Amino acid sequence: MNDTLNLLHSHRSIRSYSDAPVSDEMLDQIIRAAWHGPTSMNAQEISLVVVRDAARRARIAELAGGQSWIAQAPVFIAVVIDFHKTDLGVRKAGQAQVVHESMEGYGAAAVDAGIALGNLMTAARSLGLGIVPIGGIRRNPQGMIDLLELPPLTFPLVGLCIGHIKDDAQLKPRLDISTFRHDERYDASAYPTAIAAYDQAMLAYWQQLGRSDGLSWSQNLGNNLKQVYFPQLKPVAAMQGLLNDK
User: Fold this and answer.
1) Ramachandran bin of 94, using left for φ above 0, alpha for ψ from -120 to 50, beta for the remaining angles
2) For 5-22, how does the pLDDT look when each residue is reduced to its tens digit (9 = 90+)?
3) pTM (whole model) above 0.85
4) Dihedral of CA 193/195/196/198: which sign?
5) Domains of the chain (ranges plus CATH)?
6) With DSSP H G I counted as helix, E B as strand and the rest as coil, what are the percentages for the chain, rounded to 5?
7) d(CA 239, CA 145)
8) Would you give the DSSP letter of residue 122?
9) Which of 6, 163, 179, 201 is 20 to 30 A from 173 (CA-CA)?
């Protein structure tokens, strides 16, 4: 495998960072990697808000449900759906923007945000830095909107911690690739066996780490997916003008 594939195959989420700052040069290279990523129809409806101020990062850690590594990492980047930007372009063309009210608009923007996030992650790791994506900023989206001073038609979708690694993490096992890759047609026949094996693999993983509180994959999903765990996303997105009703 080449260096890029080795990097991608060795992904792990880092939640322990040193005090060393991320240089401006590194940060610029990382951000440019995301800036060069593709977007649907070249809409470029994604913006990044880079947070380096310690007090602001501490506040984000609180809003995300007490994730201390957000305050610890020297850089936090919020990936923002930005239909405010596109609205300015549409208005300049003498038209009225509607796509931000649709599922298609939100879905396309979410895909583009994911592409930007992936580029940020890969770029940061290629420089030897640690990262962990943060979906918890959707726990209290209004708090994030207020903190980042986001205008209407925007939404903070996901974040990313970046910093120099203090304590490395082990590679977490995955479900068998047969549950991920489908050739020619979708085939779920291998799922029950694969899930049973993965539950055991995850329990062994936690035991290896000395985590007596570690759950199997199925148990963890059961605890989390039995509810809408970030219920403020839809009403706050609607207040921002992202209605998703078309």
Assistant:
1) left
2) 999 999 999 999 999 999
3) yes
4) positive
5) 3-170+229-239 (3.40.109.10)
6) 50, 15, 35
7) 11
8) H
9) 163
